[in-house]
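Re: How this chain folds, sequence and tokenised backbone to follow
How to read it: Take the token row as a discrete description of the fold.
Start of record: The labelled sequence and token lines come straight after this line.
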Amino acid sequence: MKATVQLPLNQNIPESDVAAAIGDTVEFDKPLAPLTSFRTGGPAKYFIAVRSVDEIVRAISGACRLDIPYVLIGGGSNLLISDAGFDGLVIKIAIAGIQLVGETTIECGAGENLMAVVEFAASKSLTGLEFAAGIWGTAGGAVYGNAGAYGGGMSDVVTEVVLIDSEGKTKTRNHEYCRFAYRDSYLKMTKEVIVTVRIKLQKGEPGRIREKIADILADRKTKHPDQLTAGCFFKNIEDPSQPHGKLAAGRLLEEAGAKLLSVGDAEVFEKHANMIVNVGHATSHDIHELATRMKELVRKNSGVELEEEITRIGQF
């Protein structure tokens, strides 16, 4: 995925004016590394966590009025932030809350932790979301990127989303509007903000649901690192002849010898060649350089051009 476009700020706006336009809780020179799973990256010139539609609208409209570039983040699990940070406004979507709507539909805030939604579904004996057990990040971020694993994806369960459009208006849109694709959705193009997610599941047997979640978490524990990571760095490749219709990027990376690569404290995970781990004090530049070398290896070995799953913010 391409890095978020960042236009340099050409004016020194008084902090009081920024707070008046964006929100009283705006923070200045906010460290972003602690908000990401890589724990790398520089600060945001401006930062605000928003917990309601009104706060989102105010922050975005205020940024536009002051000509401040802005980006939105969720749980920070799929982000690589430039070591220079972001010279603009970072808006963290923190709208929480989970509730049951009808017998088998869950409604949750976009900022709700995805694993909390999985646990809520299990507590209500609802099946269909077990595939998301162990996926880091928020519900909104998972919908935005159509997160998935173990043969399932958000596109299988999402029925509706409540969005904020570019004019600050809220609207409800159905599954078809999202135009889900592999690790993708139409919402990446429209730049609309996800506020609420509705997920349709089925009644299931509590014991089997818990068992499936436990099995997936146990399997993840054997394959995923304890170190700082963003999970799979590259998308799998469409291939109908492969299981689930995808050729694993990790397989191509392993065949190309990527497990031997490292840059500074950024290393390819020894058990899964499609994961980069921060084993100490890696920088975002280290991770960027390592990813570049990994792609080059695969390109030379198999002719495949790997595409990144992660979102980049700032200049690289």
Q: What stands out?
A: The chain is about 30% helix and 30% strand. Residues 284-302 form the longest helix (19 residues). The longest strand covers residues 43-50. The CA atoms of residues 55 and 293 lie 41 Å apart.
